[in-house]
Amino acid sequence: MLLRKKLGCLHAHHSNIECIEQAFQNIENVELVHFVDPGLIQQVSKGTDGLAFKVKEQLEWMESCNMDAILITCTNYITLLEEEQLKLSIPIIKIDEPFFEIICEEKQPQTILFTNSETVEGTLKRLQQYAEQHEKTLDVVAKVVDNTFELIMQGKKEAYNNTIRQTLHHLAEEQRQISVAQLSMVEAAQQFEKESTLTIANPLKSLVKFVMRAIE
Q: For residues 61 and 36, is the Cβ–Cβ distance under 8 A?
């Protein structure tokens, strides 16, 4: 009998659930359990005081629910987590780490696209740390699709995806490798790939292999 592992997924918005479910749909020995807390994202815009402790509490609660590992899908959560001393007995998997792996292997100049400006500084800081640890050289610029993130928070998924796709078509003219940094942007990036001959790096592309290595 196949022993199934419980992977607790911490999301900042329910829209991320579908992406993760699709990524793991053919993995029989992993059971996904989703935890969603959209309120934290609203609080980040007001300041981060006390929010790191809130994330720590959430992760400890998830561990107590008999998870075998935890996947954090929100880069804001990941950045906040680094402010707290966390001692859990199960692996904590940060969705940006397999993404950084892809970015650091790319030799061309790159543009990393965001919709949530609050995630840019923390993500780039962690990316630079990852590159230094792995002795990689980066040629990366970040761009934010302004006035877009609120669309997904309001449940306007189609409008959100359309705006991202339009931006990707515009960026394609710059002849740089493009990636999307947030899980909420993956669907639009996949749609763009079908419309063009370009490949867009995203946090899902190597996530499953990364998770399976962590929980084996």
A: no
Cα Rg, the chain, nearest whole Å? 17
User: Which residue type occupies 21?
Assistant: E
Task: Say whether both 109 and 170 belong to one domain.
Answer: yes
Write the pLDDT tens digit of every residue in 183-213. Answer: 899 999 999 999 998 999 998 888 988 898 8
Here the tokens at position 51 are 């929010």
- Residue 188 and residue 164 in contact, taking contact as beta carbons nearer than 8 Å: yes
CB atoms within 10 A of CB 125: 12
User: Which residue range(s) make up the domain with 79?
Assistant: 5-95+205-215
Helical packing angle, 207-215 and 96-105, nearest 10°: 120
Q: What's the structural domain count of the chain?
A: 2
Distance linking the first and last C-alpha atoms of the chain: 16
| 11 and 38 belong to one structural domain | yes
20 closest CA partner among 98, 100, 83, 88: 98
Say whether pLDDT at 64 is over 60: yes
Whole-number pLDDT of residue 1 = 43
**Residue 32 contacts residue 4 (beta carbons within 8 Å):** no
141 shares its domain with 82: no
94: enclosing H helix or E strand = strand 92-94
Residue 48 domain flag: yes
Question: Which H or E element spans position 10?
Answer: strand 5-11
